[in-house]
Amino acid sequence: MKIKIIILSIISTFLFNANVFAFSISSIDKIKIKHSLKNLVQSINTWDIQKISELILPAQQALKSEIQEQVIGGIAYELDYAPFDENIDILSADEVRVNAKFAAAGPWWNINGLWTYFTFQKQDNKWMIADTDFHKKLGTDYVFDIFKKIYTYAWPVLILLFMFWLWMLIDCIKREFDDKSLWIILMIFLSIIWSILYFFIIKRKNIVRKPLVFKI
């Protein structure tokens, strides 16, 4: 019993200290971060490269160059990080990470509902972007990459579905049962949906036409 009490005391002390020393930022800092994000969105929509550069941490020259190359005219951009307190991770007293959904559009491409992140660091009482991936998710290259991944993973599934459909169709053709012709037509024109229905309604129950028996 004493050992249990000691262990519980240690755990309680640890949790108490963790709460005491947990990082937090002021409401004013949160307003500043949101203001920086609004300025970023406005700068992207007005193609103001200079203003975007001013929002990035001076030490992050490589990041600044990458963003400048990607954010070049003709891009409409929106961010959704509400509720803000649920989408902000406080990494330290001077560093936070904001997760946000975004919508972006340009000539011949459109993205909506995907997630991006912004890591902010506080320097000279200003919250500036130290890291982000928002610029990597803009343009036709990113859109085509999404479709490429979908295409890559979809092929095996489509092949399996086709094999399942063909298996059910052959089974239906060989099996003798009522409304057989209707099932064949439905499976040919409505493919996989009716193939699944056929599997559970006909094949799994092993339904066959009973031979007629004439009593004399």
Keywords:
216 residues, alpha+beta, Nuclear Transport Factor 2, Chain: A, 2 domains, 5-stranded antiparallel sheet, 5 strands, elongated
Structure description:
- The chain is elongated and about 90 Å long.
- The protein is α+β, with helices and mostly antiparallel strands and 216 residues long.
- Strands 1, 2, 3, 4 and 5 form a 5-stranded antiparallel sheet that branches.
- About 3% of the residues have low confidence.
- It folds into 2 domains: 114 residues, Roll (Nuclear Transport Factor 2, Chain: A); 59 residues, no CATH class.
Quick description:
This protein is α+β, with helices and mostly antiparallel strands and 216 residues long.
Layout of secondary structure:
Layout (H helix, E strand, L loop, with lengths): L1 H19 L6 H19 L3 H6 L6 H10 L5 E5 L7 E5 L2 E12 L2 E15 L2 E7 L7 H35 L5 H24 L13
Antiparallel strand pairs: 1-3, 2-3, 3-4, 4-5
Low-confidence stretches: 15-21
Give the beta-strand count: 5
The 3D shape can be described as elongated
Mind summarizing the main beta sheet? 5 strands, antiparallel
Specify the number of helices: 6
Taking Cα atoms only, what radius of gyration do you get, to the nearest Å?
30 Å
CATH architecture tag of the largest domain: Roll
Structural class given helices, strands, pairing?
Answer: alpha+beta
Relative helix content: 40-55%
CATH topological fold name of the largest domain: Nuclear Transport Factor 2, Chain: A
Q: How far is it from the N-terminal to the C-terminal residue, by CA?
A: 88 Å
What is the strand content? 15-25%
Tally of individual domains: 2
Instruction: Give average pLDDT, whole number.
Output: 85
Text of the CATH class of the largest domain: Alpha Beta
Order of helices and strands: HHHHEEEEEHH
